[in-house]
Each structure stands twice: as C-alpha cells, then as structure tokens.
Amino acid sequence: MVEPDHEPSHEDGGVGSEIGLESIIAHLYRGEVDRAVSWRQRLDSTTNFAMTIMGAILAYAFAGQGAGHTTVLIAMVVGLTFLLIEANRYQQYDIWRSRVRSMQENVFADALDPSGGTEQTDWRAQLSRDYRNPAEKMPFLHAVAHRLRRVYLPVLVGLLAIWVFHLLVYGDTGSPVDNAAIEGVPGAVVIAAVGLSYLGIIVVAFQPNLKTESEGDRLAELDARR
Fold first, then answer.
1. Quick one: what percent of the chain has pLDDT higher than 70?
2. Contact 163/73 with Cβ under 8 angstroms?
3. Residue 110: what pLDDT?
4. What's the first-to-final CA gap in the chain, in angstroms?
5. Which residue has the higher pLDDT, 49 or 174?
6. Rounded CA gap, 90 and 216, in Å?
7. Which of 5, 29, 108, 134 is buried most, with the most CB atoms less than 10 Å from its CB?
8. Which residues contact 141 (CB under 8 A, 6 or more apart)?
C-alpha cells in the first residue's frame, strides 16, 4: 500500500513532518549570529587600521621640519575615506544584525514570556521576504551618520584641532591664514574648504532625520562595550 505524500504547509511549519520550525529557527539563528559577529569584526578591524594609519601620518607630521600642515590634511582625507568604507560595511552588518534581532524579539522573547506577544505579527513573512530578496535596509547616508557619531566625528574634530595647532606653532609666518596656503592656493581658500567640509560633516552627523537612535544604534553601543 502506497502512503499518501505529505505536503509541507505553513500550519506545520512549512518544512514537513520530520523537521519543525523550532529546529529550523535554532540552526538559522546560530548561522545569522555567526555572520553578524564576522561583519562586526570586519568593522572593528577597519577602525583599528584607520586609527593606525592616521596615527602614523600625524607622527610624521610632527617628526621633522620637512613635514608641513598638508600632512595633517592628508590624515583628514584618510579618515574620511575610511569613514565611507566603514559606512558600507555597516550596511552589510545591519543585514545580519536585523535578522538576528527579529528572531530575538519575535521568537525567543515570546518563548520566555508569551504574555508580551510578538513585536511584529507578520515577522515570518518579513523574514521570508528578506531571505528571498536580500537587500540593504539602512540607507548609506544613515550609515555614514551612525559611524560619524560612534567613531569618526571625535577623531576628525581632533585632527582639525591638530591642524590649527600646526598652523599656529609650526608655520613659517606669523599669520595662520598665510601658513595654510598650499602650492599657490591661498590660505583663505584652504581654510574655507576645510571649514565647509567640516560643516557638511556636522550636518550629516546631527541632521534630525538621521540622528534618531535606532535599535541598531543601541545594539552597536552594547557591542562597543564588550
């Protein structure tokens, strides 16, 4: 006698009778946590590499008479470059982090205290769509603002202070504006360009619609304390 085929359905977890949804979630959660940790380590290694390079550039800037204030400007450019690299990596990290957080909120929290219910009633459909069509959830500008607030804004402000100090102490003339000149470019133009660049950085970091703290921000802060 031939047994009737068993068709998987969403009522029994959508995976057949041998494997339940709970087992799938357990393995899935471990895999997503591993990916999130891996991308978090990539973020940390990028930050450490950026700080090492900028530190080496600053050491050279104050090592001898031959290094001018342009060396500090190069350190600023390096910092901005690594900021953009980290913002892109944070977008990738947010993909895995958001999946982990979805399972924590809607599976584990509900299992520990069912009275609280799930955070999203359609979390399974959302997670399914994410796996079918994976995409970055955080806009690039939001990622830039996040990394600025968490890491790079204090560093870039510190570089600005060092640059001003270099103009005042190590300049060839008594005027900081004249000392800021670069190969035929007037010092006033250089100072204006640096000032406008920092104004743009501050606007991005503290723009109201980019400054709202998200769950990802809070989790990132917890990660940073480990």
1. 80
2. yes
3. 76
4. 60
5. 49
6. 10
7. 29
8. 204, 210
| Gap between the Cα atoms of 51 and 34, Å rounded | 26
Task: Work out the number of other CB atoms within 10 angstroms of the CB of residue 13.
Answer: 17
Per-residue pLDDT reduced to its tens digit, 189-208: 999 999 999 999 999 999 87
Q: Which two tokens stand for residue 61?
A: 């800037």
What's the number of CA atoms in the CB half-sphere (13 Å) around residue 120? 12
CA-to-CA distance for 91 and 39, rounded, in angstroms? 10
Phi-psi region of 68 (alpha: psi -120 to 50; beta: other; left: phi over 0): beta
3-state DSSP assignment of residue 182: strand
Query: Coil, strand, or helix at residue 14?
Result: coil
Q: pTM for this structure?
A: 0.77
d(CA 32, CA 201): 33
At residue 183 the predicted structure's pLDDT band, cuts being 50, 70 and 90, is: confident
Q: How many CB atoms are located within 10 Å of the residue 51 CB? A: 14
Q: Is-contact 194 80, C-beta < 8 A?
A: no
- Cα–Cα nearest to 130, from 87, 98, 92: 98
Q: What is the pLDDT of residues 72-82, one digit of tens each?
A: 999 999 999 99
Are 210 and 145 in contact, with CB atoms under 8 Å apart?
yes
Residue with tokens 């399972």: 103
Check: CB of residue 86 under 8 Å from CB of residue 151: yes
CB 124 within 8 A of CB 21: no
